[in-house]
User: What shape does this take?
Amino acid sequence: MSSILLFMFTYVTSFSAPVQDQLKVGEAAPDFILRSVDGQEYSTKKLSGKIIVLIMGNRKIRKEDNEWGKIIQEDFERNDRVAAFIIGDMRSVPSFVPKSFLKKQLQKKPAPVTFLLDWVGKVHQQYKTQPKLPNLYVIGLTGRIIFRKNWKLNQNRYLELKSVIDKELLNLKRKDKNDKE
Assistant: This one.
């Protein structure tokens, strides 16, 4: 019995990084290539020159991920310099559930922003996510992480995230202006 409990504890805790090991603001964002539910490929390299917002979670916190995605989409959907994604950690899905079934379900109830599928959890491991709350990252124009939090949504937290994105957009406008001169 104790060996089963030890296995279960090891299995569950292997999905998250200790807090001290998490990526920090200022670190280079790990590169990734993932596919969306409709099969389109996305990568940090292809998104270079944009502000990238990542909402990372698993199926148990999909509702919270969607709440973040919805409010970000409402403010930034018309801005082609901001790209927002939910990256789903698909390791928690039982292996007997076919991928095609999952994709169809996700297409029936689409996320408010593009939903990327991390089937083996590699991107979640690279970003050292925590499993119980949405993991929020903003990758700035330099490819570095400029914001990183594990938060449930509330107005003050969203305003803090939005101010980071707005500041980076202002930097982008200045850069564009300088490039034209």
